[in-house]
Automatic annotation (TrEMBL):
Pfam families: Peptidase_C39_2, PT-HINT. The lineage of its organism: Bacteria, Pseudomonadati, Spirochaetota, Spirochaetia, Leptospirales. It comes from the Bacteria. It comes from Leptospira interrogans serovar Zanoni str. LT2156. This is Intein C-terminal splicing domain protein. InterPro entries: Hint_dom_sf, Intein_C, Papain-like_cys_pep_sf, Peptidase_C39-like.
């Protein structure tokens, strides 16, 4: 097999690459290496990097989503497998907390700016194509693009001579915001990184920034921007690769072509493992551009998600499913969640720390072996990212109806059924479970619709077994201890309240009292004094005992499910942050600062509740079961 000579190429630090430089690029359609120009150079800062060790020698520090070409295992002979694999040693995936200044080498055509800037790529590199040696296996279809975070020890990745290198080490680590660089390469969108003493590097796919740039070209007519955007065969967005579809001819009755079907993009899968569709189209007034995403073709969610030209979601998660799961290693994912949280913060009156560019500053920490993102408030508080709630108003299970009312669960032997009024103690922990990465399957979404309904029905089924002597009626979830819910409901989804992961006020809320028909005024006043004293003691314990524990849990990166006196009957919310004056809360009923908030239809996301406004009776955290 012929390869490119080290005399023709030099390995340059990626930050030294300029637009117009010629780099070595792999054409996956022809299995050949070619010389292609760099059309864009990108730089951004990330708080987390992956360390990748290849063949026990090459060390590459890169972002989580950079694709390498991996050999896809099929049925092959033992001799072929041994031929591809290197020594069977490696570094297990783990965590470190240190900063790395890194430079990734790129195979770059030797350049002389004064003599070659006017030449074509073929003139710069006479040997444009070098045929890959395929040996006893072929690259296509037995190889695939895989993001770094999905690589595993002993995976085989494509090298610049057509052979396969071995992943011998991989882990990710948190770092201070570090500059990383990426390229866009014409046609093939691939280039070679690394480079050992023999001049062998590794093939990677380039960064996909063009779609965002095209959509945001405000000085370009909307029609032209849409045409430019739809010229892309594929692009990465929201953690999925979107492939262009549509454009089929529209025929009249005589078979004559009278138009074309609109182009759209389809994802490999959404959070429910089904494909979504994404349309790029003008806004209603025709003055700008938007993206309209149909979630599972409206089968499970009737509404659509709308994004602006900067790919920011403009909709409301209360009515349209859930936000995409937060990936702290992906700057786009973090930005998405930060922008969304910023919207509510500005409305609610609390503010976040900014960086030197005036953007909300993000941080990461290791929580139970996983990287979690958070932001600090300007007055010393903290808000955890990645937890988003949806409303429980007008919620029911399929079309289950009793006495002309849609309900969650038809409880046996009683007309006191479980309705949307009684599932906050499932909705709140469900919010935490999804924030910790739980993804409902398509079958679960189809049956239950939302996480809250699913957990509520599981809790109620356990409650049906908790009957009292002489009665066949079980308990509602609101009358079940959190320890029992953890063991018999939350555990079915892989979560539990950890040891030391709960706090109790210690003073229960007293029942309301009223003056009896024969009771003296003095006697009633004495009972009222006892009642008020107990309320005061409960409020004091909420501030002195429960509050410090919750604040400490948030500092450690744990969202807190809290039950308290938000309504006369009590209510359960998810606390995801705090500032100097109060908690920052996801409330499935809406904003409790609004009078009669159950019926107002207000959004309960990131609402701000002063510490002393509501007494809290208990709080708990969840973690994945070990």
């Amino acid at each position: 097999m012929s390869g490119f000579s080290s005399e023709d190429y030099e390995f340059a630090n990626i930050e030294e690459i300029r637009i117009g430089d010629v780099v070595r690029s792999w054409n996956e359609n022809t299995n050949t290496f070619e010389n292609k120009r760099v059309t864009q150079v990108f730089m951004h800062e990330v708080p987390q990097l992956f360390f990748l060790e290849l063949d026990g020698e090459e060390e590459i520090h890169t972002t989580w989503n950079h694709p390498f070409r991996r050999y896809r295992a099929t049925q092959e002979s033992e001799s072929n497998r041994n031929e591809r694999q290197s020594a069977g040693y490696g570094v297990e995936r783990g965590f470190e907390n240190h900063s790395v200044e890194h430079s990734r080498n790129v195979a770059l055509e030797n350049r002389d700016v004064t003599e070659t800037s006017h030449l074509t790529p073929n003139q710069l590199a006479p040997n444009v194509s070098k045929i890959l040696a395929t040996g006893n296996y072929s690259l296509t279809p037995q190889s695939e693009w895989v993001k770094v975070e999905d690589l595993k020890l002993r995976d085989q990745v494509l090298r610049s001579d057509g052979s396969w290198g071995t992943v011998t080490g991989i882990y990710y680590y948190n770092t201070e915001p570090t500059k990383v660089y990426n390229l866009e390469v014409e046609d093939n969108h691939t280039y070679v990184v690394g480079g050992d003493i023999f001049g062998l590097g590794y093939v990677v796919h380039n960064y996909d920034q063009k779609m965002r740039d095209v959509l945001a070209k405000v000085n370009t007519p909307v029609k032209d921007r849409i045409a430019m955007a739809q010229s892309r065969e594929s692009f990465d967005f929201e953690g999925s690769t979107w492939i262009r579809k549509g454009g089929e001819p529209i025929l009249d009755k005589k078979g004559k072509v009278i138009g074309k079907q609109p182009h759209y993009y389809e994802s490999a899968s959404n959070q429910y493992h089904k494909s979504d569709r994404l349309y790029i189209e003008p806004t209603a007034d025709g003055k700008d551009i938007q993206l309209r995403q149909l979630q599972r073709e409206g089968e499970h969610y009737k509404d659509v998600k709308i994004y602006d030209k900067y790919l920011n979601w403009t909709g409301n998660v209360d009515t349209i499913g859930n936000l995409p799961h937060l990936n702290p290693s992906d700057p786009n994912s973090v930005r998405f969640h930060v922008d969304y949280t910023d919207k509510f913060a500005n409305e609610r009156g609390y503010h976040f720390e900014k960086d030197g560019n005036g953007k909300t500053k993000t941080h990461t920490m290791n929580v139970d072996g996983e990287s979690r993102s958070y932001i600090n408030t300007t007055d010393g508080g903290r808000v955890l990212l990645g937890y988003t709630a949806s409303t429980q108003r007008e919620t029911y299970y399929q079309d289950l109806t009793v006495n002309n009312k849609k309900i969650i669960y038809d409880r046996p032997f009683t007309q006191n059924d479980l309705t949307s009024d009684g599932i906050c103690n499932a909705r709140a922990p469900g919010t935490v479970m999804q924030g910790l990465g739980y993804k409902m399957t398509d079958a679960q979404v189809k049956e239950f619709g939302t996480m809250g309904v699913m957990v509520a029905r599981t809790s109620q089924e356990y409650g049906n077994t908790l009957t009292s002597p002489g009665s066949l009626v079980g308990r509602k979830p609101s009358n079940i201890t959190i320890e029992a819910l953890s063991a018999n409901s939350f555990s079915k989804y892989g979560f539990e309240i950890p040891k030391g992961g709960s706090i109790y006020n210690g003073v229960s809320k007293p029942d309301k009292i009223s003056r009896g028909p024969l009771e003296s005024e003095m006697a009633f006043e004495r009972r009222m004094e006892v009642y008020n004293n107990q309320l005061d003691l409960r409020a004091k314990r909420s501030l002195d005992r429960v509050k410090p524990w919750i604040v400490d849990q948030i500092k450690q990166g744990h969202a807190v499910v809290a039950g308290g006196d938000f309504t006369d009957d009590g209510h359960v919310v998810t606390i995801v942050g705090y500032d100097s004056k109060g908690y920052i809360v996801h409330d499935s009923w809406g904003d409790a600062n609004v009078k009669k908030y159950k019926g107002t239809g207000t959004s309960g996301q990131y609402v701000h509740y002063p510490f002393d406004k509501f007494s809290l009776g208990y709080g708990y955290t969840l973690r994945k079961k070990k």
